[in-house]
Write a structure and sequence with these properties.
about 375 residues; Leucine-rich Repeat Variant
Length: about 375
């Protein structure tokens, strides 16, 4: 039977930065939160069954412990143009191509299996709460998880939770907020959409990350400017956090894998991409949006172009209007042209208005009013 020390040694050998152990007791506090905020979490609940995830034995009936592996996704620096539009944790996500991290997780699970330990990685387990219960980190007021031991104790980390059928002594929990009093709620103040309502209270319906890949409607008018230049994901509350400053101050080597795909993620290419381009260049790396919702990528890019104050995007937006049939994309293109303004934008909007209807007509009318 494997010992905790042997498992820890193997995890570190495979390149994981830290490891912790906890029980399979139900996460009753998380279930209470989900029940209290049922409306806010309704869309996420449908996709992941978060309530079921509060019982680890739902994933593995013979479960006796949970092993938490800690992984840093910010070991190397990201190109500035990518950081401006895409959350860091999505830029080097290899769960679809299954390289690097996926291979390390597979090797760890194989090690357990070779020693007669079955494991499951439930996608609906409360990852951060599990990691805190395993004593490998604390919470931030921004709801992110901060390491206790590595990465300058920053939040650029992901816990990987394995429910296993062997019992191990649980580590001392660190279920607490580790933010200093002097931070003055920097993350809450900096959140453009006011998604962080109070320390550790997030409304996912206002969270830029969630809106960027889970929206099914055109973004509300009042959120479009606050969503800024984020196409997919958002790092705003992490970037301003004093606890992350030590890691951000490091002169890190460049993430060459991400740097190699900068050209593929250029905004005009995303705005005009077809399904073949999306599936071969984009979806493999940022896969939360399936092909049938590719319109969401284009709507996000159109919004970003409108917020960019870059008039060079006006011809691209005009071209994209005729390329798309989706009213949410066309509506956002109209809004962005109104935001950018100018004679060329106004002429295009005037031309489109007579033949438009419904949502598109509303947005064109709004855009023309913005231009004045």
């Amino acid at each position: 039977m494997l010992t905790k020390n042997e498992i820890t040694e193997k995890a570190l050998e495979l390149g994981f930065e830290d490891i912790g152990f906890t029980t399979v007791d139900p996460f009753d506090s998380q279930l209470e939160i989900l029940t209290e905020r049922k409306e806010a979490y309704a869309r996420l609940q449908r996709g992941l069954d978060l309530e079921k995830g509060t019982d680890p034995k739902a994933a593995l009936p013979d479960a006796k412990s949970i092993i938490v592996l800690m992984h840093s996704y910010f070991r190397k620096s990201f190109p500035r143009v990518m950081e401006a539009h895409f959350g860091r944790c999505y830029q080097d996500d290899d769960r679809i191509p299954r390289v690097a991290l996926s291979k390390r997780v597979k090797a760890f699970r194989s090690f357990l299996r070779d020693n007669n330990i079955d494991s499951k990685i439930p996608g609906n387990l409360p990852d951060r709460l599990t990691a805190a219960r395993a004593g490998v980190g604390t919470f931030g007021k921004n709801n992110f998880f901060y390491s206790n031991k590595f990465g300058a104790k920053s939040s650029w980390v992901n816990p990987i939770n394995l429910v296993v059928d062997q019992e191990f002594e649980a580590d001392e929990p660190t279920i607490e907020v580790g933010c200093p009093d002097w931070c003055k709620n920097a993350c809450i103040i900096a959140c453009p959409t006011r998604a962080i309502k109070a320390p550790n209270k997030l409304d996912p319906r206002l969270c830029i990350s969630n809106l960027s890949y889970n929206s099914r409607d055109i973004n509300p008018v009042e959120l479009r400017e606050p969503m800024g230049l984020w196409v997919y994901g958002c790092d705003r509350c992490q970037n301003v956090c004093p606890r992350n400053a030590p890691w951000l101050a490091n002169d890190l080597p460049v993430n060459e894998k991400v740097a190699a795909k900068v050209d593929d993620f250029e905004l005009t290419k995303l705005l005009h991409m077809d399904e073949e381009y999306f599936e071969s260049k984009i979806w493999l790396h940022m896969f939360y949006i399936p092909t049938k919702h590719m319109w969401l990528w284009k709507m996000n890019v159109a919004r970003v172009m409108g917020n960019s104050c870059n008039f060079d995007y006006i011809p691209e937006l005009i071209r994209a209007f005729s390329e798309n049939d989706d009213e949410r994309v066309k509506g956002m293109i109209a809004w962005s042209l109104g935001r950018l303004g100018g004679d060329t934008a106004k002429s295009a909007l005037d031309e489109w208005l007579p033949a438009s209807e419904g949502l598109v007509q509303e947005e064109i009318t709004r855009a023309l009013e913005m231009i004045g």
